[in-house]
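ok trying again, last paste got cut off:
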Amino acid sequence: MKTLVLILCGYVFLLGAIPAHAAEDVVQLQLGKTLFTKTAVPACGLCHTLKDANSEGAVGPVLDEIKPDTARIIKALQNGIGQMPSYKASLSDTQMQAIADYVAKAVSN
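nice, full thing came through this time. structure:
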């Protein structure tokens, strides 16, 4: 009986850990989406088309087509590219990572 209780406690611990991690992912992706659509200045969605964000920007590339990975997105956010400005002075590394995670996830679906 004691062994069964220990096993059940282990499962409860493992099951409890999974949703917490998943919840962190959801929060990170929601932060990225909010930054992409509203908070970043200028907002990414003004220039970029991204289906998940309901954005239809006409200046930057269509992100659903080029499917950038997180490293490419962070590099563009930090350094700017073409007409896109650098966000290094206006976004933290954490915020840039959130945008990159969000966009990379959105284009992979």
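cool. Residues 1-15 have pLDDT under 50 and may be disordered. The beta strands are 49-50, 55-56.
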